[in-house]
């Protein structure tokens, strides 16, 4: 009996995470707290600010999704994609492609505009205008897509500053500047509006394969996006940034009822 007790006392105490026995137990058992951080977006132009807040629906104006609502929508879509909703996965893919292509388009135009300002005339140096009182917008999104939308608006904001500077010094005609800014803003709104096409249906890939009533309801609700590609349904094609697919037991997204969103191609700014 005494021998057995001695053997028990001589055995080293098991440490969490299979830590090296030389580590103190208190140190190994302690866990860091949750990570907290902060981010913000500095806005210099009214054109960019309107893309942050969007516009409410009225009798004479269509609803426009801004960055804030875009982040809310992407939180729900991300959550449903993690629950194996193929339509949510497909929406992530389309939003990601739209954000990336629009950002490339805006940055190419910005670089061309800045190059024009640098080569205006020998001996003339033109500095791009900036706001003396930029508006700081705090950013707190549940996943990367909200921040990707913020990067896009930041790029657009810089483009607006460059184009308005070029117009002020006589290097860009007003008509050309208005057209360029309108086209770029429309591309940003389109990327954000794609998030409003997705509908919460609780469908899964298994439902789609088995043609369940939920699958039929989902196909009807998502008809505006067209036929679901087979590669997406099989899970072979997903967004570069996408959640790990878990089970249907994962937490449900917040699906508070929102105003209906019209076709993104029809959304125009005031």
UniProtKB/TrEMBL annotation:
Domain of life (superkingdom): Bacteria
Pfam families to which the protein is assigned, alphabetical: AcaB (PF08900)
InterPro entries assigned to the protein according to its UniProt record, in alphabetical order: AcaB
Biased composition (Basic and acidic residues): 1-10
Region (Disordered): 1-23, 239-270
NCBIfam families: ICE_PFL4669
Protein name: Conjugal transfer protein
Annotated source species: Candidatus Tenderia electrophaga
Organism placement in taxonomy: Bacteria, Pseudomonadati, Pseudomonadota, Gammaproteobacteria, Candidatus Tenderiales
């Amino acid at each position: 009996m005494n021998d057995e007790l001695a053997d028990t006392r001589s055995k080293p105490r098991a440490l969490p995470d299979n830590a090296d026995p030389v580590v103190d137990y208190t140190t190994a058992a302690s866990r860091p707290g949750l990570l907290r951080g902060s981010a913000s977006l500095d806005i210099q132009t009214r054109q960019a600010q309107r893309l942050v807040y969007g516009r409410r629906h009225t009798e004479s104006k269509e609803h426009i999704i801004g960055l804030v609502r875009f982040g809310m929508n992407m939180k729900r879509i991300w959550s449903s994609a993690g629950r194996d909703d193929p339509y949510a996965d497909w929406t992530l893919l389309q939003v990601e492609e739209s954000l990336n292509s629009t950002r490339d388009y805006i940055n190419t135009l910005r670089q061309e505009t800045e190059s024009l300002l640098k080569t205006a005339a020998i001996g003339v140096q033109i500095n791009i205008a900036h706001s003396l009182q930029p508006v700081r917008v705090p950013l707190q999104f549940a996943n990367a897509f909200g921040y990707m939308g913020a990067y896009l608006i930041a790029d657009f904001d810089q483009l607006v500053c460059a184009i308005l500077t070029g117009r002020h010094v006589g290097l860009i005609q007003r008509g050309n500047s208005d057209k360029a800014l309108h086209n770029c803003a429309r591309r940003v709104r389109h990327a954000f509006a794609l998030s409003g096409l997705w509908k919460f249906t609780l469908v899964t890939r298994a439902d789609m394969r088995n043609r369940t009533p939920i699958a039929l309801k989902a196909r009807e609700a998502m008809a505006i996006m067209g036929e679901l590609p087979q590669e997406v349904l099989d899970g072979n094609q997903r967004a570069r940034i996408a959640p790990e697919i878990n089970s249907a037991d994962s937490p449900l997204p917040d699906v508070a009822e929102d105003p209906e969103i019209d076709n993104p191609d029809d959304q125009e700014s005031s």
